[in-house]
Each structure stands twice: as C-alpha cells, then as structure tokens.
Design a protein that fits this description.
By secondary structure, the protein is mostly helical. 75% of the residues lie in helices and 3% in strands. The protein has 11 helices and 3 strands, in the order αβααβαααβααααα. The chain has a 3-stranded mixed sheet. It starts with a helix and ends in a 5-residue tail after the last helix.
Length: 313
C-alpha cells in the first residue's frame, strides 16, 4: 500500500504534558537540565572507558560504554523535540518524522534489551566461572554480541514498521503524548488495525516481558550458584549485581506497562514515555558510576592525568 496515495495527512499534533504556560516553563527547565545531565553522564562513561587502560580491557566496562551510547542516543531521539515543543503553541511533527522517531525508538530499545542480556551473561561468567572468564568473554565474542544487539533491534523495529508505514491516515491527527508512540499512532489510522495491534503486543510486549523474566532468572541462578559455593560471597555478588538489576527494572518496567499492560490511560502513557526516555537514561550513569569504585578510581586517574598534562607557566 502506498502511503502517499492513501493518506491526506502530512503531520501529527502532539499534546505534550500540559497546556499550562507556567508548567511548560517548569518542565522545560527540568527536561533541559535532565537532558544535559544525560549527555554529560553517559559521555563521561564512554570517555572514561575509552581512555582508561584498566577499564577498556575489561568486558563489563566495554558493554557498559555501549549501554551508555544506547541510552544517550535514545534520549536524543525524543527529548530535544520535547524540550523545543514547550515553546510552541502548536506542537507538530511531520508524518515521516513521526515514523522515523518510532523506528529509532524501537531500534534502540530492542538493541538495549539484547545488550542487557549480554551484560547478564557477562556477570554470570565472571561470578560463576571466573577461571574461564577471559576465555569465554573474549573480544571476538564481545564484538559479535554488540553487533547482534543492533541486529536484534533492527529486526524488532522493522517487523513492526514494515506494516506501520503502509497505514492510511486521513482522519484525526492528535497524539496525546510527548512523542510518537506506535500504539497511539496506529489508533489514528483510517483502517482496522486489530491484527497489527496484536503484532505490536506480541513483538514489543512479549519481547519485553520474556527478556525481563529471563534476566531475573539469570540473576537468581547467579545468586544461588554463589550461595552454594560460598555463602559468605553472597553479599559481594549482591553488591555487584544490584546495579544491573536496578537498570533492568528501570528499563523493562515502562516497556512492559506500555505494551503488555491490559489497562492504559493517557496520563500513564505520558508518565511512562517520560520515564523511558528521560529518567532511565539519566539514572543509568548515576547507578553505574557513583556506586562503582573502579569507575570512581578511573575518574580520578583521568582527572589527575589531565591536570599533570597541563603546561606549567
């Protein structure tokens, strides 16, 4: 079906978070500061891992740097548009701009799901098979795993976008959200989308739910294995995994509620959209950097190296 021949709409209207000018100014300040922190925090992690010889040779931190890239890019796809819209009375987005936003959100979201699973496997090998860690988690495996995460994200988004871009839009064009979300956009189509709705639930909802369950099972297996081998080592394993588990819950929670929860509301959708695109990418650097002694030490080394490299007058 050719989109141009069946659609009379060339843009959508986003209602955003509020219609109050005072609240829009407040949200602008909050979101601007949050997005700035997202860029600085995630860029700092990538920078530290790249230039610190102790971290860039460790698989866990290589994967962490890739997670930061996913988070920073995902936020960039949605948040700048949200920020600029606070100063616009008519918040519009072109039809193809909307489709591009959906494509990138699902590409990066699906890729991050796969990357989190790879990170869980890395922790399992490091904790349960430490003598074989360097053999199993070698650089060839790591590079292939990161590439696979991008492939998973691409397949995930294309399996839905291949049908979404063919939908005809000829009626209402108002999206009661802060950015284009596939279920809300599909509800505006001038055709029956029942089958496509089921596809989205099966693809996004079940993928999020199954991935979340598998990750929790993997962490439980790790803790049980550690407890059996050395009960005293359980607290150390919990300390190591607590950051990973927190990130998993923060990332998968909104995704499961958006796509697999049977009851939905516009207020909940907006909250989850903000949480998914702003809160999670903002908290990940805090969780991984402030709670991680090696990352703190790497920051100090990078700072001292920068200070010592300054020319003296």
């Amino acid at each position: 079906m050719d989109l141009k021949n069946h659609s009379v709409l060339n843009e959508f209207i986003l209602l955003g978070l509020t219609s109050s000018w005072e609240l829009e100014i407040f949200f602008f300040v909050i979101f601007f500061l949050a997005y700035t922190s997202i860029l600085i925090g995630n860029s700092l992690i990538i920078l530290i891992v790249t230039f610190d010889s102790r971290l860039n040779s460790t698989p866990m931190y290589f994967l962490l740097a890739n997670l930061s890239f996913f988070d920073m890019t995902l936020s960039t796809v949605t948040v700048p548009k949200m920020i600029t819209d606070f100063f616009r009375k008519r918040k519009t987005i072109s039809l193809w701009g909307c489709m591009a936003q959906i494509f990138l959100v699902h590409l990066l979201g699906g890729g991050e799901m796969a990357l989190l699973i790879v990170m869980a496997v890395d922790r399992y090998v490091a904790i349960c098979k430490p003598l074989h860690y360097t053999t199993i988690m070698n650089w060839r495996i790591l590079l292939r795993s990161v590439l696979l995460s991008w492939v998973v994200g691409f397949v995930h988004t294309m399996s839905q976008m291949a049908f979404a871009v063919t939908l005809p839009f000829c009626g209402p064009n108002v999206i009661d959200d802060v950015f284009c979300d596939l279920p809300l956009v599909m509800s505006l189509a001038c055709t029956d989308t029942y089958i496509l709705d089921l596809l989205v639930i099966a693809d996004s909802g079940l993928l999020s739910l199954i991935s979340f369950v598998l990750l929790l099972i993997s962490y439980i297996v790790i803790l049980v294995t550690v407890h059996r081998r050395s009960p005293s080592g359980l607290s150390k394993a919990l300390s190591t995994l607590s950051a990973h588990i927190t990130v998993v819950i923060l990332f998968f929670g909104p995704s499961i509620l958006i796509y697999a929860w049977p009851v939905s509301s516009y207020e909940l959708d907006k909250f989850l959209s903000v949480f998914f695109s702003v809160i999670t990418p903002l908290l990940n650097p805090v969780i991984y950097s402030l709670r991680n002694q090696e990352m703190k030490a790497a920051m100090i080394r990078l700072r001292n190296r920068h200070i010592s490299s300054r020319p003296t007058l």
